């Protein structure tokens, strides 16, 4: 299975400041169809995860434009341009290239300083 | 709108089995795969298995082979996940989730079902 590794695992951030999370996979996430099925999910305590970004850089419906995704191959990044209070929680990267054996990063806990 | 509604929390003894349901609505049930993902307390997400509601075919993570069975009932648009020979380390929140073909990711999740394995 593809292993997803996130850094950092914890990120204390000041409100209004940027935040960045990295995700690396053990093999290329480029699918034979040409797409790269790398997503970012956000989870608040006691809730299921919700989709933020799909196929590296596409914001899901309703996701604020302060969230952006980038990367290629095996290295990916989620950036929040200006952190707001509602952004706290855990962020997961996820690969769906190796269908159906999807795998997730360990999670990065974003908290306010 | 798409909804995935799961059954309630369960407490089971080691060695027992648990069956969690996931009732889908708001879309054509047979057109989208349903996945099962679990999350142990304070831990990350772990993919367990998938079912094609159209034909009923399944694929499971190697880790759960022999202990997991995912089935579906097309008349009630419900998917079931049964996990047998429960161990303390199976204590987790179990989620069903639907992948959308446009995004290639999980756009819809059930609310989660807490399964506690305790003697």
List keywords for this structure.
heterodimer; A: 113 residues; seven-stranded mixed beta sheet; four-stranded antiparallel beta sheet; 11 strands; B: 119 residues; mainly beta; globular
Give a structural overview.
Chain A has strands spanning 4-7, 10-13, 19-25, 38-43, 50-54, 58-59, 67-72, 75-80, 89-95, 103-104, 108-112. With 113 residues, chain A is mostly beta strands. Chain A starts with a strand and ends with a strand. Chain A is built from no helices and 11 strands. Helix content of chain A is 0%, strand content 48%. With 119 residues, chain B is mainly beta. Chain B is built from no helices and 11 strands. Chain B has strands spanning 3-6, 10-12, 18-25, 34-39, 46-51, 58-60, 68-73, 78-83, 92-100, 105-109, 113-117. The mean pLDDT of chain B is 96. The chains are: A mainly beta (113), B mainly beta (119).
- Helix/strand structural class of chain A: mainly beta
Q: What letter string, H or E per element, gives the SSE order of chain A?
A: EEEEEEEEEEE
Strand content of chain B: over 45%
Our Rg estimate of chain B from Cα atoms comes to 14 Å
DSSP strand tally of chain B:
11
Oligomer: heterodimer
Question: What is the terminal-to-terminal distance of chain A?
Answer: 36 Å
Residue share in β-strands of chain A:
over 45%
Overall pLDDT confidence of chain B? 96
Poorly predicted segments of chain B = none
Q: Compute the CA-based radius of gyration of chain A.
A: 13 Å
Most extensive interface, chain pair and sizes? A-B, 23 and 21 residues
- Form type of chain A: globular
Shape of chain B: globular
- Determine the number of helices of chain B (DSSP H or I, runs of at least 4 residues): 0
* Number of separate helices of chain A: 0
N-end to C-end Cα span of chain B: 40 Å
Most strands sheet of chain B: 7 strands, mixed
């Amino acid at each position: 299975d593809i292993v997803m590794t996130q850094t950092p695992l914890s990120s204390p951030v000041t409100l209004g400041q940027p935040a960045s999370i990295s995700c690396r996979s053990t093999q290329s996430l480029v699918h034979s169809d040409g797409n790269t099925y790398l997503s970012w999910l956000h989870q608040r305590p006691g809730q299921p995860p919700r989709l933020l970004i799909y196929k590296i850089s596409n914001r899901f419906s309703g996701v604020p434009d302060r969230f952006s995704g980038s990367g290629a191959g095996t290295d990916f990044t989620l950036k929040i341009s200006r952190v707001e209070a509602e952004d706290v929680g855990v962020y997961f990267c996820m690969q769906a290239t190796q269908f159906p054996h999807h795998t997730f990063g360990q999670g990065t806990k974003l908290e306010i300083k | 709108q798409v909804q995935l509604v799961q059954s309630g929390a369960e407490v089971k003894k080691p060695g027992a089995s648990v069956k969690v349901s996931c009732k889908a609505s708001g879309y054509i049930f047979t057109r989208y795969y349903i996945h099962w993902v679990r999350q142990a307390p304070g831990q990350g997400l772990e993919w367990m298995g998938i079912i094609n509601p159209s034909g009923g075919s399944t694929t499971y993570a190697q880790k759960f082979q022999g202990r997991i069975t995912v089935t579906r009932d097309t008349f009630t648009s419900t998917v079931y996940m049964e996990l047998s020979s429960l161990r303390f380390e199976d204590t987790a929140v179990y989620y069903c989730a639907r992948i959308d073909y446009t995004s290639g990711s999980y756009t819809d999740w059930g609310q989660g079902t807490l399964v506690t394995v305790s003697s």
